[in-house]
Fold this sequence. Notes:
mainly alpha
Amino acid sequence: MKTKDIALAILVVAIWGVSFSVIKVGLQELPPLLLSALRFLIAANPAVFFIPFPKTTVVTVVMIGLLLGVIKFSLLFLALNGYVSAGIASLLLQLQVFFTIVLSAVLLKESVSRFQLTGMLISLIGFGFFIFLQQGSVTTTGVILISLAALAWALSNLVMKKNAGVNVFHLMVWACLIPPLPLMLLSVLFESPQPWHLLTDVSLKVWFSLLFLAFAATLLAYALWGYLLARFTAATITPFALLIPIVGISTSAVILGERLHLLEILSALIVMAGLVLCVLGERLHIMQKWQTGSSHSRQSQ
């Protein structure tokens, strides 16, 4: 990868990591379902009038829109609305890595390496600590909501796998058309019978958060991520996502003043260790064997 490509990958990670704190800002004045509906409404319009329909089926677009837009982000926004801190949410959501591996093994018959299995077990121990600690940054309800959001994300990953080669940016723009209506209906049922009245007193910082979530976290980030996936293998690009929790936890401390307790920091480190082993374990093992072989070769000379 060239320096420019690495910089683009880091930019995407930074945008997605910061977005957890930005969501928290939006939730200060708007309920979660309405905020999520507006995010996708703004992202889809007017982009959908300029972006061609992706080279896939309507069913695929609807499935991605429902899994990511309606289910994943609704659950994430609900969790961030008082049940989990922004930093911890960015970490717990990476449970999608393990769900994706397990579902791929069960449904797509993909093999699970010993590094992935060990990494999942290590991270699950860390996740378990979060459930039992509950020191203010996360609640049981928050863990459940984030886990279900991660499961929805993993299911969408499987749909993406079945549509390898489809332009990710085009797919996301059109998928953004799906969530606004069902989310708005749910908002009317569970949040406010007249949600549009809530928009009259919204401050500029909330509008900024909506614009950031729609244009930066959705359109720009997915466009760049799709560009990188088209140029490089998934194995080269996806490890950058391991940086998202680091950015999320750091920015939540700066923007929102969130602080983790010592045991929460230790739990986060356990989860991150498992994630690194799960994503990079095979390659690290190959590099170690290569270095060992090179060392023996030099010694024999």
